[in-house]
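hi! just following up on the protien thing from before. the input was this:
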Amino acid sequence: MRAWLADCELNLGSPQRRAVLLLCGKRVVAEEELVDAVWGENPPPAAVSVLRTYASRLRKVLEPDRGHGEPPRVLVSVGGGYVLRIPDSAVDVRVNEQRAAEARKA
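and the predicted 3d structure came back as:
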């Protein structure tokens, strides 16, 4: 998984952090679901805390211009989980799925 801000590729960090970002799609993903997806059956004792650290670090990378105290706009906490709020046109997979659907209709 790769991401850009304008013309700069972003450093998304470890594979675990990338997985969190990848899993947080258009729907809210519960922390427990993310813990299971990232660590499987043997999560570390502080998995939820580590997950929150991943989210915080991802937010700094995704929104470097966000001011102190401003709520996140991209990776948003919602009711014990996270959701990624970016337009479909900014995600290659979503664009490809839309084009494939349009091609099937044609």
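The beta strands are 4-5, 8-9, 29-30, 75-78, 81-84.
The two ends are 30 Å apart (CA to CA).
cheers
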